Amino acid sequence: MLQDSHAFSGFSVDDISAAKAFYADTLGRRVTEENGMLTLHLAGDGGDRPTLVYPKPNHEPASFTILNFPVDDVEAAVDDLTARGVTFETYAGTPMETDAKGVFRQGGPLIAWFTDPAGNVLSVVER
Fold it and tell me: Which of 28, 35, 55, 79 has its CA 20 to 30 A from that of 20?
């Protein structure tokens, strides 16, 4: 029944204008707006992968990573995004402890977490 459905994901934010500015201007992603909602256009195998960003007045940020952006060089991505005003999360004294820049180096791929204006958690992760 759903094998041919073009499924897509979505997440909520509390301020569509702030989300649009962040995803388009700060992160440099293509964003379109229609009916008070955003479509975040993400690159994917075989083309565009639309992700719905919708307003929710009682929005509560996800307590997990909602989007991961694979990059060739986490250090360069962190430096570039920091220069654009992004603040990376630092987790001290936890199993996911990061360094002062916000990069997790304790095994697995290098990864660094940050939030969008609505508090949703995103990451850059080294391929």
Answer: 79
